Amino acid sequence: MTDDASVFRVAYVSRNIGEMDEAGLHELLRKSRHNNVRRGVTGALLFSPECFAQVLEGPIAEVETLFERIQCDSRHSDVVILMSERGVPRQFGEWAMAYAGDDDAQRVRFAAMSYGDLAAGASAAASILDILRGAVGRAEPALPLT
To answer: Does residue 145 lie in a domain region?
Structure first.
């Protein structure tokens, strides 16, 4: 695990271009959790029929490589970085990749936001982090990092 001084965090939103269904999402989460443990990456994901929102945190080289792969992924379009920060404490350190969509209240709250609202910048980043922290704070870690 990296110390806080070397943690890099990026939060983004992207359009879901319709290729992702629930079964595909759960397979993506399984693979992400496995790979993220090896890379020292933690984070959380929101998903709706319209868009994805995600926070990734960990060593800068690992997070940047993963984020580049996401930007090239055919399931995403119009990727917008909401925030990027270095030297921050992990907010999702117990989760290789938490999925906030299992929390009904947070899923409804996220689904009510449009891509345009989410791509609006700093206030969107704060809203996404608030939703993720709210959902993840009530959940057990799916695959803890050790």
So the answer is: no
